[in-house]
Structures are given as structure tokens and as C-alpha cells.
From TrEMBL:
GO terms for cellular component: cytosol; nucleus. Residues 19-303 form the NADP-dependent oxidoreductase domain. The lineage of its organism: Eukaryota, Metazoa, Chordata, Craniata, Vertebrata. It comes from Chlorocebus sabaeus. Its main location: cytoplasm. One of its GO terms (molecular function) is 5-alpha-androstane-3-beta,17-beta-diol dehydrogenase (NADP+) activity. Substrate binds at residue 117. This is Aldo-keto reductase family 1 member C3. The record marks 84 as: Lowers pKa of active site Tyr. The active site is at residue 55. Belongs to the aldo/keto reductase family.
């Protein structure tokens, strides 16, 4: 995981490991589990750890990182740690305090990457999902360019080595890129991406702007009932996916995945997520095999523009990103 060809150079000169460990878990999973699996992920070889204020696990993830530093397994500079600005903190005066709060929880001096988690702004406050008396989300209207300027100040202050966005469409990226007085470009855009939803147009756009695409739900999704249609097809049960795996991996049912290999061929950063101990170890083995051109063609043919996370509750917000084609 430490060799140079397994990292991508970002447009600000920093390097991001190609394979990352995503720490999100559904609410029913005890937060203490995040400590256990993050330590395991680091022991297995992951050096890119992805968290967020929304995940409500930054204390546990930070403790896992610090414990592996303390026992000599890694140094702080070996770890690429990502956190994210939640939607209730988009107002520019709230951005730095939000990042400082995340750093305090993780007990780290800086994050390697700080992302705007979503372009949709929500009412400021302690509630992650503020709702009215009818249970409808309460939106906020914020100029994302002012949010980005506050993100730039966090980078200049050394609180974040790199800054980027998540769940932005190409038009919203253009808005940031065309902002008068832009000081730092987004280094990446973290979006849903997998063989059923290959994001080819957004990938091409990002490449043209020297922005890295970071893929979440690269294995399909965790099928959280709050957000994912339970009738949607399960990527890891797709016959093409299963048949493309090396024979010795086919019985494991949750492979490190050709999705990862196919994405890495496109220089996409992959976030893999598993709270299963054995699978976390298997996931790191993604670089131990390569797909043939025939395999790649078969996987490309799986694309069906299937987005698992439509975030329909956000659809009436003017910055809802999924109305655009890409």
C-alpha cells in the first residue's frame, strides 16, 4: 500500500492512496465497532481512512489511528485521513469551527483532506437533519462559493492539507472553478461510483479539470433502508461480477472486487467499507490481481445508470445535485 504507483498525485501536490477505508456504518452498529475495524484496516495495510462529522464516529476513528501510531505500526504522515463538512455548517463563519471540532474529536492536529459533504445546505444547528413539524427537512440557502472560500482559509491555516467536495455535479464544480479569486481548486469529488453506475461523463469532466474522482459505494452499497431501495439489484450478486473474480475468491461472496480493479484502471480513488473483520482483510488484496481486457469489457457492460443513493428528500433544494445528467 505504500508504493508510489498506488497513490495519486493531487492538483495541490499532495498524494492520496488509491485504496481507502470508509468508516460509515448504519446507526444500529455500535460506535465502538469503528475503533475495532479501523485498527484492523490499518493492520491490514490501509493507509487512507475516510470519516465525516455525519458518521458520528470521529472520536473512535481518531483513537484507532492514534493507537496504531503509538504502537509503532505507522507514523502520522503514513496516514491519509479525510473528514467532511456537514450540510448544517455551510455558512462561511461555521466552516472553520466545524473542522476544529472534528479535529478535537479525533485528537489530530490536521486532516489530510476536508470535503464539503454535499452541495445541499441545511438549517444551522446541532441537529444533523433538522426537520419541521411535518418531518420535512429544513433547508438553508448558502452561496457555496463563500463556503469554499472558508475551506480555502482552513487549508491556508494548515488545518487541512487538501480540500475538495463530495456529491457535486459538473455544474457545481464549474461554479467553484470559475469563482473570482479562486485560490485552491478542489482536489477531488467524492461520489457514488460502481459498475452499475460508472460515472463516465463526470469522470471525464473531472479528468479535464485535474480533479480526482473518489468512489464511494464501490461495492454497490450497504443497503441502508433509510436511503436505498431494498428492491434494487445487489451488485455483488451479479453473475458477471462473481464470474470475473479469481476462482479462489469467488466463494467469499464479498470480494475485494473487480469493481475496485476496474475503477483503479481509470485512476479513481476507491473507498471500501466493511465492518466484517475477514472482509476488511480481503479488501486490501485488490492489488493482488488484475482484470483482463475481456473482464473490463464485461464490467463496462454492467452500467445501467443505477444510483443507489438518490437522496430524494433533498430534491426540492436548488442545489440538489442529481437533477443534472452528471
Amino acid at each position: 500500500m505504500d508504493s508510489k504507483h498506488q497513490r495519486v498525485k493531487l492538483n495541490d501536490g499532495h498524494f492520496m492512496p488509491v485504496l481507502g477505508f470508509g468508516t460509515y456504518a448504519p446507526p444500529e452498529v455500535p460506535r465502538s465497532k469503528a475503533l475495532e475495524v479501523t485498527k484492523l484496516a490499518i493492520e491490514a495495510g490501509f493507509r487512507h481512512i475516510d470519516s465525516a462529522h455525519l458518521y458520528n464516529n470521529e472520536e473512535q476513528v481518531g483513537l484507532a489511528i492514534r493507537s496504531k501510531i503509538a504502537d509503532g505500526s505507522v507514523k502520522r504522515e503514513d496516514i491519509f485521513y479525510t473528514s467532511k463538512l456537514w450540510s448544517t455548517f455551510h455558512r462561511p463563519e461555521l466552516v472553520r469551527p466545524a473542522l476544529e471540532n472534528s479535529l478535537k474529536k479525533a485528537q489530530l492536529d490536521y486532516v489530510d483532506l476536508y470535503l464539503i459533504h454535499s452541495p445541499v445546505s441545511l438549517k444551522p444547528g446541532e441537529e444533523l437533519s433538522p426537520t419541521d413539524e411535518n418531518g420535512k427537512l429544513i433547508f438553508d440557502i448558502v452561496d457555496l462559493c463563500t463556503t469554499w472560500e472558508a475551506m480555502e482559509k482552513c487549508k491556508d491555516a494548515g488545518l487541512a492539507k487538501s480540500i475538495g467536495v463530495s456529491n457535486f455535479n459538473h455544474r457545481q464544480l464549474e461554479m467553484i472553478l470559475n469563482k473570482p479569486g479562486l485560490k485552491h481548486k478542489p482536489v477531488c469529488n467524492q461520489v457514488e461510483c460502481h459498475p452499475y453506475f460508472n460515472q463516465s461523463k463526470l469522470l471525464d469532466f473531472c479528468k479535464s479539470k485535474d480533479i480526482v474522482l473518489v468512489a464511494y459505494s464501490a461495492l454497490g452499497s450497504q443497503r441502508d433502508k433509510r436511503w436505498v431501495d431494498q428492491n434494487s439489484p445487489v451488485l455483488l450478486e451479479d453473475p458477471v461480477v462473481c464470474s470475473t473474480l479469481p476462482r479462489e475468491m469467488q466463494h467469499r461472496r464479498e470480494p475485494p472486487l473487480l469493481a475496485s480493479s476496474s475503477c483503479s484502471e481509470e485512476t479513481i480513488i476507491i473507498l471500501l467499507n466493511s465492518y466484517n473483520q475477514a472482509i476488511s482483510v480481503y479488501n486490501i488484496q485488490v492489488f493482488e490481481f488484475q482484470l483482463t481486457s475481456e473482464d473490463m469489457k464485461a464490467i463496462d457492460g454492467l452500467n445501467r445508470n443505477l444510483r443507489y443513493f438518490n437522496s430524494d428528500s433533498l430534491a426540492s433544494h436548488p442545489n440538489y445535485p442529481y437533477s443534472d445528467e452528471y
